[in-house]
Amino acid sequence: MQKKESELIDQAVNGNKKVLESLLLSVQDMIYNLSLRMLGSPQDAEDAVQEIMIKIITQLSTFRKESTFSTWAYRVATNYLINCKKSMFAQRPLSFEFYGQDINMGFVPNTEDLLQGVEEEILADELKASCTNVMLQCLDPESRCIYVLGLMFKADSRVCGEILGLTAEAYRQRLSRIRKKVAAFLGEYCGLSGTGKCNCQKRVGYAILTHRLNPGNLEYRSLEKLDHSTTAEFTEAMEEMDRLSSVFTQLPQYRSPLDAKSFLNKLLKSDSMDVIRMES
């Protein structure tokens, strides 16, 4: 850890609200994107970011500075997300077998009544963003986290291992096994892979009919996208990605919809924060 970052941590622990806000803002967007991939829906991700921010604030005094602040913050986030039971998909787990069967039966005509005046291409893009995140829910939480950190965030295996409490070699071995499992599913079902039978545009009508896609509420389209130069600041290049994994590496990263400044100000002034300080 650089001396400057260490000093900032000390200032935040000692009550400097501006420095604390700056530290939280530095990791907020990537924590949101990690939460989105781990939990499968924008609303669950936004709720998770708030919970994780509270954990970062209350646990900051325990940070030993043996890694960078961002690595430590992601460790706090992954611990929360792997064990999170509040999300929709934690309560209704998916499997690749179920998802494959659903794809096989899930095509209906995209009628004007179903599209509700929204362009088919726009709805297909929304479905692609949703479907890829939902498909990740077919992995168990730890495997999902390993896959997301390595192939979507392109994080270095040493850093990923540090976040998850694994050696770099153990992390790479587990990632390789998970990647093969996901690639097999993508190769058979996902049209984005170039070989799969599914097609986002053809699935739009079925997704609307089954209430998985709402033309009147396009959650992903309303999110602000981060540009590549911003996301590159958070991650390091890893190993060469295989062709099927590129389905995920091409997905956009999003800016967190949480207003961190407002959230932080309310939290620090709240009665519950005084209780947290006394207990920590």
From TrEMBL:
Q: Where is the signal peptide?
A: none
| Matches recorded under Pfam families | Sigma70_r2
Give a yes or no for keyword Transcription in this entry: yes
At the top level of its lineage, which domain of life is listed?
Bacteria
Keyword entries, A-Z: DNA-binding, Sigma factor, Transcription, Transcription regulation
Domain RNA polymerase sigma-70 region residues, every copy: 26-83
Instruction: Return the NCBIfam families for the record.
Output: sigma70-ECF (TIGR02937)
Protein name (database record): RNA polymerase sigma factor
Organism, as annotated: Faecalicatena faecalis
